[in-house]
Amino acid sequence: MSPGPPPTRDEWTTLFSAHLEQLMLRTTTVLENAAFSGLLLHSGTEHYVFRDDFTYPFKVHATFKQWAPISAVPDCFVYVDPDRDRPLLIFHQPQDFWHRAAPVPDTYWSDSFEIRVATDRASARGHLPHDLSRVAFIGEAFPELTTFGVGSVNPQYLLAALDYPRARKSPYELACLREANRLGALGHQAAAVAFAAGASEFEIALAFMGATGQREKELPYNPIIALNEAGSVLHYQMQQTQRPSVRHSFLIDAGCEFAGYASDITRTYSYSDPDFRALIGAFDDLQQALCGEVRAGVDWPDIHQRSHVAIAGWLRDAGLVRTDPQETVDSGLSAVFYPHGIGHLLGLQVHDAGGTLGGPDGHEIPRPPRHPTLRLTRRLEAGFVVTMEPGVYFIRQLLDQARASPLGKHIEWSRVAQLERFGGIRIEDDLAVTDAGCENLTRAAFSTTIAPGA
Ligand code: GLY
Ligand code: MN
Ligand code: MN
User: Rounded to two decimals, what is the model's pTM?
Assistant: First the structure.
């Protein structure tokens, strides 16, 4: 399905209003059921480094930015009371001549709020009703909160009731996720060009950020930019400044943020080796076949299980294992090469909340015992956004364990020795689930984005 052109400002306003109305409706029900009169959401606190006057990079809390798309301002509050016309946004503008205060929002969503400005938390309290005894606070508690008089701080049942429906994205949220993918695709294309031109990991990271216009602290996660065997490290973080003397492969897992919503995209490239290029091509076919299985009603752990069988077939075709696919899965051999889950919910957080919730009451759907790293155990519904990210890696620690176990005799070690310099392959797209199938947000973004330098 084609996403069409990005919305105009008026369209964003209409989309956001409908999103907020829907959020308000379901929050009203949750509050009534829990006998709360309102909700107080905090954007978060800046934290200082121990014995220093510099702060760690600041991240707004997801529950806050679902209401107000503010991504970089600490100590803002959203006060939600179903009896009010509009939610109240208390916007933080400190009196601080060392830093530039963020301007009061004037954008497609700001008219949806009553906005007041506060210079600190104590003055923020002054904008709130006198009696907050039936209000639940959500956020990281700060010292002054004890004087706010809120009824409850982060009640677990309320968090679950709010997290559970977050999996189903509104049309506004889907538009944000499309935009996050469009930005991500721009970055990926610049990164691929930099890799082909001989750049270091650090230089590739700069190319990604240059093309997306997002600094590292603004990205939803630290980009994973791995050359050669570093691709075997699942969340590789080094970003070497040295260009390697030989160049085999490039694995990039990097996304962007738009209005608080994340993309999460992985691609793998062969520099010049046709064998590895063909293996990536076959792996891409496998990933696309798995995307083809995604639709409302499908149980995600089933997809995960089938991804193991598909990868076991790829391992055999690649000459890495000697056993049949089902045997490769049942013996645990596929997990030696593929030790993570097939994907997760995506949205305000990269690993979005509620992946293992069985209902708004907060009961859990346990992870399959043999797949303890699976982050999503729910049955898919239309409106869910998930990642599809099969991977195979040559991880020294897991290979050494396998070699010392009965699994070792089923592995073609000479083929491992040929391929381990490439690190691994992961291909990851973001999918919006529909009743009939899914919209591949990432492929659509790649196909409509013009490659820099092309
Ligand atoms: N980028 C982290 C992940 O794919 O889950
Ligand atoms: Mn990823
Ligand atoms: Mn992911």
Answer: 0.97
